[in-house]
Amino acid sequence: MSRLREFRSDVVALLRLAVPIASIQVGYMLMGVVETIIVGRVSAAALAAVALGNIYFFTGIAFGMGVLFALDPLVSQALGAGDDAQVTRSLQRALVLAISLAIVASALFLPAESVLRLLGQPAEVVPLAGKFVRISIPGVLAFYLFVTLRQTLQAMRRVTPIIVTMVAANVLNGAICAVLALGLFGAPRLGVTGAAIAGTVSRWFMTLLLATLTARDLAHHLWPPRHGVLDRRALGRMLAIGVPIGSQILLEFGVFAVVGVIMGRFGMIPVAAHQVALNIASLTFMVPLGVSSAATVFVGHAIGRGDVPTARRASAAALAIAVGYMCCTAATFIGIPRVLAAIYTPDLAVQALAIVLLPIAGVFQVFDGVQVVCIGLLRGLGDTRAPLWINIFAFWGIGFPVSLLLGFTAGLGPRGLWWGLVVGLIGVALLLLVRLRGRLRGQIERLVVDAPSGPLAETPRSSV
Q1: 252 inside domain
Q2: Taking residues 29-41, what's their average pLDDT?
Q3: CA-to-CA distance for 276 and 273, rounded, in angstroms?
Q4: How many domains does the chain have?
């Protein structure tokens, strides 16, 4: 009975942080959902263009976003250890990395139209998709700055300002997108261009509003610059934590992106249907992603305090929450795919294929929830390399070849491509569970990239 009470207490404590963080994740995803729904009213070509544009854009920023996720274990473990100086240095180094990553990512977006054309995408869609990506370039830096602030605040368990920011940004994004894409209130009907403008403006609005709302909380961490912020060895150690995260996110998103691009070889309708089904699946995925982020914070704080039993209990609680929720979404995808597809587009051909793909997404929902929570838990423990290698093996070594085999050799087309994704997700989930179990049974040490300056300064545990 004592263990059951502890487990219930851990579930409640985790939900108190997970629900707000999941709301933040859902809020950010809703911006894309609203954008997709609005553009779906323009034309199937516009919907396909936004699909390809978003695939290209998020593939380009995924790696940098993951690198900045190094803040999760570093800040949460430093807070658990009472090492305020490490929090400050980690945040300031992340800002330096954010600016550098934005420059690189922006450069990758310039040849978007040529790249999409080389990949054999539909000729009527490529110019629109390329323009969408180019207009989105000014928002890259804003996105990375927002991620830096968000991850730091989440580790501090200061999520209310982020929620307020997301609500305001959604209202602004929806209004701008509707007016410019559909030509409301006398505005020119810009379609895809209007959606891209709305996204860029909204990203800068999010960053500036969040910085304003949290000025008191973060001011002493942001200024003045701390000694050693630009220390090459410390930055290298931070990258050693973040680069595997960025690579794992890029490769995971990349397999879905590549499948989306391959869809273009079947025509415009499969690309649009893929976008609809993936958008819906991504929206539900935001909840276990929020649980994963909350679990990272909980486990990180526990490891910083040296409280391994709490880290183990939090892991069980996080997995239970994710599995329960994703079972419900799986039933919804399988039960009412027609209703869900109709929300996104009135095009009957797009709806018909989306209705076929959504039940397949329902099959992989539970495994998707398990794998993302395992990644968050391992990140809280400071283990960022194993998820990368597991991702490469299961997604790219097994899932992607199965997609090609079923999609082309077996002649299943778009359905076959998605069944390959299911196989990859199952493999990732099972291997990550094995890795997590092994780590929780072994010795767990705190991550530091500098000499500790808090209460643990006399007995540093580990260095990355």
Answers
A1: yes
A2: 81
A3: 5
A4: 1
1 pLDDT band, cuts 50/70/90, is low
pLDDT at 222 over 50: yes
Using an 8 Å Cβ cutoff, are 368 and 284 in contact?
A: no
376-398 pLDDT, tens digit each:
999 988 888 999 999 999 999 99
Cβ distance 380 to 436 under 8 Å? Answer: no
Position 77 in a domain:
yes
Spatial distance between the Cα atoms of 445 and 243, rounded to a whole number of angstroms: 20
Are the C-beta atoms of residues 203 and 28 closer than 8 Å to each other? Answer: no
Q: What is residue 382's three-state secondary structure?
A: coil
Length of the chain: 464
Residue 66, in any domain of the structure:
yes
When pLDDT is cut at 50, 70 and 90, the band that residue 212 belongs to is very high
What is the mean predicted confidence (pLDDT) over 354-358? Answer: 93
Residue 31, H or E segment: helix 2-40
Q: Which are the contacts of 87, defined by CB distance < 8 A and separation ≥ 6?
A: 75, 78, 79, 152, 221
Helix 348-381, helix 71-80: angle, nearest 10: 40
Coil/strand/helix, residue 350 = helix
pLDDT in tens, 58-93: 888 989 999 999 898 889 888 888 888 888 999 999
Cis peptide before 224 (omega within 30 of 0): yes
Residue 139 backbone phi and psi in degrees, to 5: -85, -5
Triad 458, 462, 464: Cα angle to 5° = 135
What is the DSSP-derived secondary structure letter of residue 405?
I
DSSP 83: -
In a domain, 450, yes or no: no
pTM over 0.85: no
Domain that holds residue 171: 2-441
Number of other residues whose CB lies within 10 A of the CB of residue 265: 15
How many Å apart are CA 391 and CA 371, to the nearest integer? 10
What residues contact 94, with CB distance under 8 A and at least 6 apart? 68, 70, 71, 148, 151, 152, 238
Distances in Å between the Cα of 146 and the Cα atoms of 59, 123, 141, 212, 340 are 18, 35, 9, 12, 31
Residues 6+ apart with CB under 8 A from 285: 368, 369, 372
Do 83 and 392 form a contact (C-beta atoms < 8 A)? no
Span between the terminal Cα atoms of the chain, in Å: 39
- Distance in angstroms (rounded) separating the CA atoms of residues 435 and 390: 9
Contacts with 84 (C-beta within 8 Å, 6 or more apart), sequence order? 78, 453, 454
